[in-house]
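Researcher: Please translate sequence to structure tokens.
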Amino acid sequence: MRYLLTTLVCLFYITSVYATDVSQTNVSGGNTSIQGGYSASTTYESGSSSSSTTTNNSTSNIRSAPPAAYAPGFNGSGIDVCSSGISGGIQTFTFGISGGSTVRDLNCERIKLARELKANGMAVASVSLLCQDARVFQAMENAGTPCPYKGKIGKEATKEWKKYGKLRPDFDEYIKNLKIIEEQEKKEALKFKKEFDKANKENKK
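Model: Translation complete:
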């Protein structure tokens, strides 16, 4: 009986308070962040107390690479086709694009056509076709064998090309060359005039 009374008295004079505070916040979006804390405190009636606090923060940033934008492949079909393929692509984290196409090689076509004309006995037509290239036109002119002009060859073709200079495939460069030639001829004419005047003065003495 005495033991029971002692226990009741102890419970009457001692009061125990226990408090717990837990908070947790989840934030989702481009990143995932979890923040939370745990607090616990114990207070005794006599005035003594004990407390503990635990805080947990966890942040994760996860990024995955998007699928790659692969550039398609383009090939010229056959061995006697003057075309080549080009393709390209670009990829970012939000957007990707790729594409491709084929490009004609006109100079390759010209060479093949000229070869066929030559093989069929059309030598003048073959040369005339090659002369559509400015480099070939200049090479022929520098060699003294001008390109054909509407059925005319040799000196007759040269006269026609001078008459209809704007039809030359190298017209722009041809004009530049003419200006250089004219300037040089003026310098030579001026030099000759000075020498001629000097010779006349010496003869008069």
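Researcher: Any highlights?
Model: Strands lie at 16-27, 32-44, 49-60, 83-91, 96-104.
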